[in-house]
Write a structure and sequence with these properties.
This protein has 14 helices and 15 strands. By secondary structure, it is an alpha/beta fold. The protein has 3 domains: 180 residues, 3-Layer(aba) Sandwich (Aspartate Aminotransferase, domain 2); 58 residues, no CATH class; 125 residues, Aspartate Aminotransferase, domain 1 (Alpha-Beta Complex), CATH 3.90.1150.10. The strands form 4 sheets. The protein has a 7-stranded mixed beta sheet, sandwiched between helices. Strands 8-7-11 form a 3-stranded antiparallel beta sheet, with no helix packed on it. A 3-stranded antiparallel beta sheet has the order 14-12-15. Strand 5, helix 5 and strand 6 form a beta-alpha-beta unit. The chain is globular and about 55 Å long.
């Protein structure tokens, strides 16, 4: 990967994160970047990798592809990130890596995790698929540790349609990542054309009115591999690496990324403004929301909300043309059955299981203008009896 388009994109990412561009590596999806990092760290059969029991299925997939074992840890209902006390109990002599997730844009408490690990030979990876643009104690999410990975898929901090990258702050690991990046499968002409069509459709045709119809159609098509999807059919059926998984970034993604990343700070400022309006609304109704420590800069990629009956709540929102997200509808979203295949035992993490059965995401995107925000708040007012306190469930 040496063409000017890729190098320009790497430089754009490095400038944003204030890091060296030689330490940025580009891949087809964020999960490919995660797999490459784990492989570079030597994760293999017999190793354990600790992850939150409130994540996307692609995270345990990458671990299992390498023969390692995902160890799930329940979450703190105050933050939706891993419960530090339960994390301590999960560490064993087989623990090789801990993945610290930026849930909905809120960083994990990195210092607490580092202190917990101490001098044990355990690597910590930042999962910044939600968290790019945020800060932890004044430092950019994704730049705090040896390795981090990011996603630029739909509804992420900024979008290239699909896409991902890694930042590596370790010379030996960076050398391996450079080799992996060079070895990755090159996206085909079909990949590029399909991606361009999807980006055009999403940009020009998806509105609050068409949102759920479009999302359901997209999922149906991607599950059957008719279009390039966030999660292809095989990834949701069993944790066996699909053919062609280890793919590099396309020029289409890199070209879009150079421009898109420049707009991210404005988008984050907007997300925080919308989130502040939600905070004010819920404070007026004395409904607790997730806690944000003053040392954390939360980007509010999504605004989580717990409700009594999610299906009813989403249906009523849909009737009023209000788009709601559903991250994460299970401890390993979007898996809702056959959990044993992903080495998850149902009933083992009650907080995550309860929250994943009741959560919806209020939108914060740049399409939320004042009129749309007023409609959302009016909808919430009318459905206030369905909304649960985030600290009580």
């Amino acid at each position: 990967m040496s063409t000017s388009t890729y190098l320009t994109y790497k430089k754009s990412i490095a400038n944003y994160l204030k890091v060296k561009e030689n330490n940025v590596f580009l891949f087809w999806k964020g999960r490919v970047a995660l797999y490459a990092i784990l492989k570079g760290l030597g994760v293999t059969l017999g190793d354990e990798v600790i992850i939150p029991a409130f994540t996307c299925v692609v995270v345990p997939n990458a671990i299992i592809y390498l023969g390692a074992t995902p160890i799930y840890v329940d979450i703190d209902p105050a933050t939706y990130n891993m419960d530090i006390h339960k994390l301590a109990a999960a560490i064993t002599s087989k623990t090789k890596v801990i993945i610290a997730q930026n849930t909905f844009g809120l960083s994990s408490d990195i210092n607490a995790i580092v202190d917990l690990v101490g001098d044990r030979k355990i690597d910590i990876i930042e999962d910044c698929t939600h968290g790019m643009g945020g800060f932890y104690k004044g430092k950019s999410n994704g730049t705090l540790l040896k390795a981090s990975f990011f996603s630029t898929q739909w509804n992420k901090p900024y979008s290239t349609g699909i896409g991902g990258m890694a930042y590596i702050n370790d010379e030996a690991l960076a050398k391996k990542m450079s080799d992996y990046e060079a070895q990755a499968i090159r996206p085909s002409i079909k990949d590029n054309i399909t991606l361009r069509v999807l980006i055009w459709v999403r940009t020009n045709l998806i509105t609050p009115t068409t949102y759920w119809t479009a999302v359901n159609m997209y999922r149906w098509l991607s599950h059957r591999k008719i279009v390039t999807g966030s999660s292809q059919g095989e990834e949701l059926e069993k944790p066996i690496m699909p053919f062609g998984f280890f793919k590099g970034m396309s020029k289409t993604q890199a070209k879009i990324g150079v421009t898109a990343i420049l707009k991210m700070d404005l988008a984050i400022a907007h997300q925080r403004k919308v989130a502040a309006a939600y905070d004010k609304f819920f404070a007026r109704h004395q409904i607790s929301v997730p806690i944000v420590h003053p040392d954390f800069f939360h980007t509010y990629l999504k605004y989580p909300l717990l409700v009594r009956d999610r299906a009813v709540f989403i249906e009523r929102a849909n009737q009023q043309k209000i788009e709601l997200g559903e991250w994460f509808n299970s401890p390993i979203h979007p898996i809702t059955k056959d959990f044993d295949a992903w080495q998850y035992t149902w009933g083992s993490h009650p907080v995550a299981e309860m929250i994943s059965s009741q959560i919806v995401n209020l939108p914060t995107g740049t399409n939320i203008d004042n009129a749309y925000l007023a409609r959302i708040l009016a909808f919430l007012e009318g459905e206030i009896h369905h909304i649960l306190d985030s600290q009580s469930g």
